[in-house]
Amino acid sequence: MDIKAFAFDLDGTLVDSIADLARAANAARADLGLTPLTEARVASYVGDGASSLVARTLADDYAAEFTGTALQKEAMNHFDLHYKQGLTIDTTFYPQVQITLSRLHERGFALAIVTNKPERYTLPLLRALGVSEHFEVVVAGDTLPQKKPSAAPLLHVAERLQVSPSELLMVGDSKNDVLAAQAAGCPVVAVSYGYGSNLDDLGADRVIHHFADLLEFID
């Protein structure tokens, strides 16, 4: 691979945020008189943005979709309040992420975030974690009309960074990341430690078990 830039998913790839997401989801459920879900259950609902997460955790059903019902909107308001108040209570970087990002940045690689998490959570979270300066472009779930698995976010990043899609390596943990990269013509690496499942069947160019393994693509 001739890599000139990297695009990273956020939740499940750079940071383990499930404790804070589960806390907010369960607080919203409690506000509506519902019993809590396990962190593992909430983790299985992550990946398609906040509205999808709220719909799924409200119904406790992966097939649930956010259609804008009064109850879903109420649950979204509660989730929004609770999550904004606790973005970084327990959210932490996965091992080797910070040092690897620093090394990539120092080596002159352009770095971007491509997440389905809305901007209202993504930007404050990156600032709170102290890594905003590493990323030249941040594409959140509501930055563009389309989000992953659409090719649009990655094509937008490639254009902004002035690289071809084939020179932009997508790094993520889910099917959406792989599908978006394939649709955009980007190479893609999946991390094994995130919230995704059946990674070997997703069709990523490579599956890595440690974030620092990314340095193999430049050293």
Automatic annotation (TrEMBL):
Cofactor(s) required, per the database record: Mg(2+)
CDD domains reported for this sequence: HAD_PGPase
Catalyses which reaction(s): 2-phosphoglycolate + H2O = glycolate + phosphate
Any Gene Ontology biological process: glycolate biosynthetic process
Listed transmembrane segments: none
Highest rank taxon of the organism: Bacteria
Coiled coil: none
E.C. number(s) listed in UniProt: 3.1.3.18
Involved pathway(s): Organic acid metabolism; glycolate biosynthesis; glycolate from 2-phosphoglycolate: step 1/1
Family: Belongs to the HAD-like hydrolase superfamily. CbbY/CbbZ/Gph/YieH family.
Annotated PANTHER family: PHOSPHOGLYCOLATE PHOSPHATASE (PTHR43434)
Name assigned to this protein: Phosphoglycolate phosphatase
Native organism: Silvimonas terrae
